[in-house]
Amino acid sequence: MTALGDAVRAPYDLLAWLIGLWSDALAAAGDALGIGMLDYVFMHHAFLVGALIAVMAPLIGTFLVHRQLALIGDALAHTAFAGVAVGLFVNSVLGTGISPYITAVVVAMLAALAIELISEVTDAYNDVSMAIVLSTGFALGAVLISLNTGGLAVGINQYLFGNLATVSRENAALLVVLFLVVSLVVTATYKQLLYVTFDETAARVAGINVAWYNRLLTTLTAMVVVGAMQIMGVILVAAMLVVPVAAAAQVARGFREALLASVVLAQIAVLLGITLSYRYETTAGGTIVLVAVGVYIGMVIAGRLQSRRSVVGDTAVTGRIEADAEESPGD
Amino acid sequence: MTVSPEPTSSTDDRHRDGADRVVAAADVTFGYAAAPVIEDVSFDVGCGEYVGIVGPNGSGKSTLLRLVLGLHEPDAGKCRLLGHPSLAFAERERVGYVAQDVTENTKRMPITVAEAVLMGRFPHAGFGRVTESDRDRVREALHTVGIEQLADRKITALSGGQRQRAYIARALAGEAELLVLDEPTVGVDAESVDAFFELLDGLNDDGMTILLVEHDIGAVIEHAARVICLNREVYFDGPPAAFAESDALSRAYGTTLGVGAGPEVDGS
Questions:
Q1: From CA B31, how far away is CA B264, in angstroms rounded?
Q2: Does B102 sit within 8 Å of A207, measured CB to CB?
Q3: Could you tell me the CA-to-CA distances from B121 to A135, A330, B127, B128, B175 in Å, in that order?
Q4: Across the A/B interface, how many CB contacts are shorter than 8 Å?
Q5: Which chain A residue's Cα is nearest to B123?
Q6: Structural domain of residue B248, as residue ranges?
Q7: Distance (Å, rounded) from C-alpha B127 to C-alpha B119?
Q8: Does A266 touch chain B (CB under 8 A)?
Q9: A218, A232, B95, B223: least buried by Cβ within 10 Å?
Q10: Which CATH number fits the domain that encloses residue B189?
Q11: If you average pLDDT over residues B60-88, what whole number do you get?
């Protein structure tokens, strides 16, 4: 037990030290530039966690959205809420000190598998199984809270609506680990995920285990959802998976381009959102999402202008190739 | 010393084994016991052949393709792909697959033609890093199908015919030896369909084995070197000219004959 404790302790100390460095750097920058909000350590953590989420969420979200699974984030967020309720409930009943994060990850992952299982076993549409899991998660959370009102309800509130001030150093360290895991897994399986997203049957013919990669994607989603939960609030987590991705799709031609654009747009939304929420004392999750939607609208307009400009060029090239195709048989 | 066996039985033995065939199906049955989609179907495809499978809607054409590709497990019988049992087939880069235009599913997905064609290289080197030589293959493949100018276009901005060329290019980029096409011309305009079939003819001339499921019987008779007429079971397997003269079509299609048939097929 001590050996295990020590094994976890060393990397955690390293992470905590790195996060401390980040904090010192931001504080120094705040002093130099006269930015008042950078005086607070919780803001340093909020910016760090926000930036990490703004990489992970669009990274996973790009695959989800283009597989028409945009709602899965919503479903998993609601079950993660149930997971938090389970953790708080168990702690208050048994007097244990389990992090609600851990129970949220576990419950959300079980829910991710349940979504797959329900559509496989009952032959239902994917969105039906998502809706069932979403409702179950929220209902379970609500029932557990009602069983033990008082202390629980206060605890739940921050998970529901997000709170910048609750990002502790431990939370930030957990997010860094999550970020590393998600980035590594997506980098390693990028090609398979892309192939499955683009053309499932051809992917199967190419020897890819589609069911396995579907499961991987939902599991990663569950992890990202739980990671984003405390800063965004469960209700708005899904927006980070979807809105920057939808915005990027308006202007990008290629998939890699779309992936990068969605990360950049998410960074803008999160950093601007956190700043505004501090300045005007508004809820972080809501502010970030509103900024993201603003970015999305901007991209829609940019996309329209872009396609209007390229229509003329398109017709010219297409016409030439069609003509080429007709000539070639005679060659 | 016995005399060497009759040619027919020797061919049959090879069919059973299927080791030297590109595609082989032996006594394959698939589907619910009461109403099999495929019943006792045997056929094989040799190297460099151009085989077209025709049959009415719901005749099991696409299912048969999925069986030989190893995507379904037959209830009875065996399928082999490039000398290996289909279900255990691992050399996936040797097979190119083009289905009906998938744009319906990926209508809004941002992906360039070059990115889509590059997927043909993915099974090589176990999905490792994409190298410059992979990109060269993509350029060559796009050149072969005549759409290299569209490499950086969003694939959804292409016409149906151009998009199907891109999927052929994906198979070529993967250096496929066998091209399996499942109704590739659905939703493609008539002019592009002609050009598409001429592209397939050219590839076949260069040695590509082609297995094509197609609703347009006229096109199959005109372009394929061998026709298999399927409606749950095989009604005909032979040269197009003999098929056009046989009554297999009317037997396989029953009363629905003539609706989709080209001018070459009289149906008498």
A1: 33
A2: no
A3: 42, 31, 8, 10, 8
A4: 105
A5: A206
A6: 46-74+92-253
A7: 10
A8: no
A9: B223
A10: 3.40.50.300
A11: 92
Say whether pLDDT at B266 is over 50. Answer: no
> Quick check: A254 contacting B, CB < 8 Å?
yes
Interface test with A, best of B86, B105, B188 (most A CBs within 10 A): B105
CA-nearest of B234, B248, B205, B199 to B219 is B199
Q: Is residue B143 part of a domain?
A: yes
- Asked whether residue B22 is domain-assigned, the answer is no
Q: DSSP string covering chain B, please?
A: -PPPPPHHHHHHHHHHH-TTSSEEEEEEEEE-SSSEEEEEEEEEE-TT-EEEEE--TTSSHHHHHHHHTTSS--SEEEEEETTEEGGG---GGGEEEE-S-GGGTTTT---BHHHHHHGGGTTGGGG----HHHHHHHHHHHHHHT-GGGTTSBGGGS-HHHHHHHHHHHHHHTT-SEEEEESTTTT--HHHHHHHHHHHHHHHHTT-EEEEE-S-HHHHHHH-SEEEEEESEEEEEE-HHHHHHSSHHHHHHGGGTTSS--TT----
Which residue does chain A place closest to B117, by CA atoms?
Answer: A195
The answer to whether position B39 is within a domain reads: no
Q: DSSP alpha helices (H): ranges in A100-168?
A: 100-122, 126-147, 151-161
Structure tokens at A14: 């390293």
Contact yes or no for B191 and A324 at CB 8 A: no
Overall domain count for chain B: 1
| Beta-carbon separation of B110 and A249 below 8 A | yes
B193-250: pLDDT as tens digits = 999 999 999 999 999 999 999 988 999 999 999 999 999 999 999 999 999 888 888 8
Q: What is the dihedral of CA B165, B171, B172, B175, to 10 degrees?
A: 180
Tens digits of residue pLDDT in A232-278 = 777 677 888 999 999 999 999 899 999 999 999 999 999 999 999 88
- Check if A311 contacts B (Cβ < 8 Å): no
* Residue B223 covered by a domain: yes
DSSP lists the bridge partners of residue B226 as B51
Check if CATH label 3.40.190.10 holds for domain A40-330: no
CA distance to partner chain B, nearest, from residue A287 (Å) = 28
Residue A318 to residue A324: CA distance in whole angstroms: 10
User: Which of B91, B154, B165 should we substitute to test contact with A (largest number of A Cβ atoms within 10 Å)?
Assistant: B154
* Low pLDDT (below 70) residues in chain A: 1-5, 7, 148-156, 164, 235, 310-331
Q: Do A254 and B122 touch (CB under 8 A)?
A: no
User: Among all residues of chain B, which has the CA nearest to that of A63?
Assistant: B109
Which residue out of B23, B86, B89, B122 would a mutagenesis test of the A interface target, given it has the greatest number of A Cβ atoms within 10 Å? B122
Distance between A235 CA and the closest CA of chain B, angstroms: 26
Contact at 8 Å (CB) between A103 and A96?
no
A5: its two tokens:
């404790």
| ipTM topping 0.90 | no
**In chain A, domain spans:** 1-39, 40-330
One-letter amino acid identity for B103?
T
What is the reported pLDDT for B105?
A: 56
